[in-house]
């Protein structure tokens, strides 16, 4: 259970827009940050290391467009 099949294991995440499961490396991770003006907005976490709740978006232009209107991260 512990060491088997771990080697090529790719973490899979789901695009919050189209709900497709994809390898993490094929998704863009966004993290919500609070700006100095107190506004909460998502920023692209290119290194995928920022703390906080991450939102994964696939590379589809359609999902990027819809993510701009996506409000789930405001909660
Ligand atoms: Zn998507």
TrEMBL record:
Domain of life per record: Bacteria
Domain YlxR: 13-69
SUPFAM superfamilies: YlxR-like (SSF64376)
Protein name: YlxR domain-containing protein
Organism of origin: Halodesulfovibrio marinisediminis DSM 17456
Source lineage: Bacteria, Pseudomonadati, Thermodesulfobacteriota, Desulfovibrionia, Desulfovibrionales
